[in-house]
Amino acid sequence: MTAENVSSENATASDVSESEAEALNVLVLAGGISHEREVSVRGGNRVAEAIRRAGAQTRVLEPNARLLDEITAAAPDVIWSVLHGASGEDGALRDVLRLTGIPYVGSGPAGARLAWDKPTAKEIARRAGVQTPECAVFPRETFSELDAHSVLTAVADRFGYPLVLKPVKGGSAQGVSVVEHADELPRALVDAYSYSDGLLVERHISGTEVAVSIIDTGDGPEALPIVEISPLKGRYTYEARYTAGDTDFYVPARLTEEVADRVAADAVTVHTALGLADFSRIDLIVDAEGTPWFIDANVTPGATETSLAPLAIRGAGRTEGEVYLDIARAAISRAQA
User: Fold this and answer.
1) 14, 16, 45, 277: most buried by Cβ count inside 10 Å?
2) What is the pLDDT along the chain (337 residues), one digit of tens a residue?
3) Contact present, 82 and 28 (Cβ < 8 Å)
């Protein structure tokens, strides 16, 4: 099933009747100052509209210097952050939200910090028994003190080309490069360090890119149908993620039942090992032998019209508003427990 087919399902249907939905007051945070601001705005408006159609009250708020005062004045039942980048996903905002005493959707500060730091997330996944590509991490200072060429030559000798270079922290494939030859390394370094002071160099895994959205509405983490990602122009870049028509998606992914079960199980394992809550997305690559390799964990899954979590929700035969309300209610129950 391609993205076009999935996207059209239930597009005009009301999510749930107002009589079926509690009259929740949901405050959606969107925008911010990260490189992913536009994506956050689009996703936040989409989340708010889905929840509104499901019968709840919603308001979209852009964080500013008076954030705590504005949250207090809004007096929501629950807060839903759709802020991407460091401002929304590195754990700091969640520390701030916790101070309000108001329930919020998503992982707590500790889990967010672990997922935001890619090398840390990879090590936790590895210890939990999930395969992840071998990597090396280099703070910017490393290349100030050592000969960068020699260091990268040693990495290439160990891992082999192609190499994947990416910021140690960040999302939406920003600053990520797949390097086929040594002469491509200088530009890849500049790209990665423009988004973070740390560089992760990773062994490249060739295979099928997949994403597993995880929801927990009170009965434990559940893997939604796996989304297979098939970019039309090579890699799944930032542009391919957010430009309609640049990527084909298949829901469920074109995997054997045995491999799909393993992918889903590995995703739930990573979600649990990182201490994530409510709603996350785990990205993996499945190699030619059917082995899943953990790549990244996202505590704020994208919610735009081309994002992966909404595709997974619709692929499960459910609607965004229905699922989002279930998640919001679960976040409230968890906070009250």
Assistant:
1) 277
2) 444 333 333 333 344 444 445 589 999 999 988 878 899 999 999 999 999 999 999 999 999 989 999 999 999 999 999 999 888 899 999 999 999 999 999 999 999 999 999 999 999 999 999 999 999 999 988 877 778 788 888 999 999 999 999 999 876 678 899 999 999 998 999 899 988 889 999 999 999 999 999 999 999 999 999 999 998 876 665 565 656 667 899 999 999 999 999 999 999 999 999 999 999 999 999 999 999 999 999 999 999 988 999 999 999 999 999 999 999 999 999 998 7
3) yes
* Element housing 282 (H / E): strand 279-286
Q: What is the pTM of this model?
A: 0.89
Contact yes or no for 162/180 (Cβ under 8 A) = yes
Distances (CA, A) of 177 to 87, 108, 142, 189, 210: 23, 30, 19, 9, 18
Rounded distance, CA 179 to CA 235, Å?
12
Q: How many helices (H) and strands (E) does the chain have?
A: 14, 13
Please tell me the distance from the alpha carbon of residue 173 to that of residue 170, in angstroms, as a whole number. Answer: 8
Helix (H, G, I), strand (E, B) or coil at 279: strand
| Helix axes 67-74 and 92-100, enclosed angle (nearest 10) | 40
CA–CA separation, 332 vs 78, rounded Å?
Answer: 7
Three-state SS letters, 104-120: ECCCCHHHHHHHHEHHH
Place of tokens 């996207």: 7
